[in-house]
Write a structure and sequence with these properties.
The protein has 673 residues and is mostly helical. 44% of the residues lie in helices and 8% in strands. The strands form seven sheets. A three-stranded antiparallel sheet has the order 3-4-5. A three-stranded antiparallel sheet has the order 6-7-8. The protein has a three-stranded antiparallel sheet with strand order 9-12-13, with no helix packed on it. It binds 1-deoxymannojirimycin. It comes from Oceanodroma tethys (Wedge-rumped storm-petrel).
């Protein structure tokens, strides 16, 4: 307490501020004593020796500093917090493979509009990627874990180790416009579409994403390795003898040109992505950048170029998020549009993509029903991505028109439709095989793609399946295999194309999406039949067409093959359905059946110098008569479905997020509005 006596006793005050303590003062009379009590006493003494003004200034300074501290703490809080979260995020997205440094972790930006500057597209180099400006985690259910480069077949024991070995995967991109991650198909489909004209929005992050992000990758197994090896062998042939051309002729070591658009290469792009074949993908991408030109005076088939080229480019865009592919998709999409300029708006079969003209085949003004009704998934998706509704409008109109047409038989459609009148022609013949097959497939798939809202599509699909049950289902002898025959002017034929083997997969997909359980029962019966179409044949490979025995005859199997039908074109349909069946049931027998088929492809269709070939005679194991042609769908579909069939990772192209087009190119399912 301050008093006059104390004031008199205290040394004269100097009115300046100094808090410097000299060593002598600090040591004091008692010499150096570093005890805590001494230090406290000494400080107090010094404090007391200060003038009032000095003390006030010091206290003011402390108070001022304290206030500043509080203010800066609150304003720094947010950035600090986000910094902390970001580093946590970074930890969460650490690559699963030690040593693989992913600058772009499982995250992709919203789809870019196709008019993004092509020149800004990155050279695809999955290795070393710049961080995108804003980081969003894609769901791991869309993450495809890449196999190692230079994969070699390993024993089961080795496989997990292989998948854990470091992968050199970082490389520079030219810009940040497109982001590519070899973490896999790390897309979150942009689910914002309600109509093609609606503006593209940033997809929302599903609530479960963070938990999913932490899921362990599923290692590639031995059978998948075998598929990779088969793909590489096929690719070697294509690269050595047919690079940039439509199809490989593996025996003559040359190529076949159909549209002159590198069909095999484009069809195979997303397969390479899914299989994790980075180097091959990068090489192919360079070809697309430098050599793929649609400005060509060439007639292309609308359906084939839509499902293989447009579909292949769109799905590759979705998987890689590389705007190059969207740009090319938009280009080919626009060039195909003249096909719809017909009196009925039912498109012509052929388009000259350089001249912008379209026409039907020379001998008729009809189009094939399956062709005009199996281009919808692709054109609808193109509208969604570009915001240009004309693509979707054109194909939706076809579906609406077909929905109203007469000439159906309990939902079953004839095979031809006239581009002038818009009416079905050649009435009375009904099949689930060639010329009608994917009409049924796309009814269901469009309904799923659009968020299960377009009731007419579902109606037509349900009616058609009832029509199949009523008119086309029969059982063979002796094994009582359920099969889908054909109806011609009231007469049942026990003929079934291999193409019909898409049906078990489609039925299973419908059942998975809430359609009646008996669709799944039928799927199970039909896939058994499709397998028997392989198993009952000498090479273990199915012919193009079989005839089933309706009556038991001694020494006869269920399956009969006519000489004209005993070729095998390396088609995918059975493997495709095996994939769906395994995904939805988990029954390993489907994987085993697929494995048998792969081995038989290797045994009878593999050409030692590279590539696989179609064969003419599945009944002659000692000479299957190679045809010298590898169809693009062998890489686009058959091997892709094989790889997916052998995977136990349901998130490897999750069927609740993606819908496969009829050429096995996955496209995103749109979210419900
Ligand atoms: C492919 O082009 C498509 O799967 C199409 O739907 C049918 N034909 C071949 C495969 O067999």
């Amino acid at each position: 307490m301050y008093s006059a006596a104390a004031a008199a006793a205290s040394p004269p005050r100097r009115d300046f501020i100094s808090i410097t303590l000299s060593p002598e003062e600090a040591v004091g009379a008692g010499g150096y004593n570093n005890s805590k009590a001494w230090r406290r006493r000494s400080c107090w003494r010094k404090w007391k020796q200060l003038s009032r003004l000095q003390r006030s200034v010091i206290l003011f300074l402390f108070a001022f500093l304290a206030v500043c501290g509080v203010i800066s703490y609150t304003s720094m809080g947010e950035p600090w917090k986000s910094l902390t979260n970001k580093s946590l995020d970074d930890q969460r997205t650490e690559p699963e493979i030690p040593g693989l440094k992913l600058a772009n972790p499982a995250v992709l930006p919203a789809p870019q509009k196709a008019d993004a500057n092509l020149g800004d597209s990155p050279e695809l180099s999955p290795q070393k990627l710049p961080k995108p400006p804003h980081v969003r985690h894609g769901p791991s259910n869309l993450q495809i874990k890449p196999p190692r480069r230079d994969v070699k077949l390993k024993t089961r024991h080795d496989t997990s180790r292989v998948a854990e070995e470091p992968v050199q995967a970082d490389k520079e991109e030219k810009t940040e416009k497109s982001v590519i991650s070899w973490r896999g198909a790390v897309i979150e489909p942009d689910q914002s579409t309600e109509s093609p004209s609606s503006k593209i929005k940033e997809p929302e992050k599903p609530s479960s994403v963070e938990a999913e992000d932490q899921k362990e990758p599923v290692p590639i197994n031995e059978r998948q390795m075998a598929v990779i090896e088969a793909f590489r062998h096929a690719w070697k042939g294509y690269k050595d003898f047919a690079w940039g051309h439509d199809e490989l002729k593996p025996l003559s070591k040359s190529y076949n040109e159909w549209f002159g658009l590198g069909l095999t290469l484009i069809d195979a792009l997303d397969t390479m992505w899914i299989l994790g074949l980075k180097e091959e993908f990068e090489e192919a991408r360079k070809w697309v950048v430098n050599d793929l030109a649609f400005d060509k005076n060439v007639d292309v088939n609308l359906f084939e170029s839509t499902i293989r080229i447009l579909g292949g480019l769109l799905s590759t865009y979705h998987l890689s998020r590389d705007s190059l592919f969207l740009e090319k998709a938009k280009d080919i999409g626009n060039r195909l549009m003249p096909a719809f300029k017909t009196p009925s708006k039912i498109p012509y079969s052929d388009v000259n993509i350089g001249r912008g003209t379209a026409h039907p085949p020379r001998w008729t003004s009809d189009s094939t029903v399956a062709e005009v009704t199996s281009i919808q998934l692709e054109f609808r998706e193109l509208s969604r991505l570009t915001g240009d509704e004309k693509f979707q409008k054109a194909v939706d109109e076809v579906m609406k028109h077909v929905h109203t047409l007469s000439g159906k038989n309990d939902g079953l459609v004839p095979m031809f439709i006239n581009t002038n009148s818009g009416q079905f022609t050649h009435l009375g013949v009904y099949t689930l095989g060639a010329r009608a097959d994917s009409y049924y497939e796309y009814l269901l798939k469009q309904w799923i793609q659009g968020g299960k809202k377009e009731n007419e599509l579902l109606e037509d699909y349900m009616r058609a399946i009832e029509g199949v049950k009523k008119h086309l289902l029969q059982r063979s002898q002796p094994k009582k295999l359920t099969f889908v025959g054909e109806l011609a002017h009231g007469h049942f034929s026990a003929k079934m194309d291999h193409l019909v083997c898409f049906l078990p997969g489609t039925l299973a997909l419908g059942a998975h999406n809430g359609l009646p359980a008996d669709h799944m029962t039928l799927a199970e019966a039909l896939i058994e039949t499709c397998y028997q179409m392989y198993a009952q044949v000498e090479t273990g490979l199915s012919p193009e067409i079989v005839h089933f025995n309706l009556h038991a005859q001694k020494g006869h199997k269920d399956v009969e093959i006519k000489p004209a039908d005993r070729h095998n074109l390396l088609r995918p349909e059975t493997v495709e359905s095996l994939f769906y069946m395994y995904r939805f049931t988990g029954d390993k027998k489907y994987q085993d059946w697929g494995w048998e088929i792969l081995q038989n492809f290797n045994k009878y269709t593999r050409v030692p110098t590279g590539g696989y070939t179609s064969i003419n005679n599945v009944q002659n194991p000692s000479n299957p008569e190679p045809r010298d042609k590898m169809e693009s769908f062998f890489l686009g579909e058959t091997l892709k479905y094989m790889f997916l069939l052998f995977s136990d990772d349901i998130d490897l192209i999750n069927l609740d997020k993606y819908i496969f087009n009829t050429e096995a190119h996955p496209l995103p399912i749109w979210a419900p509005a």
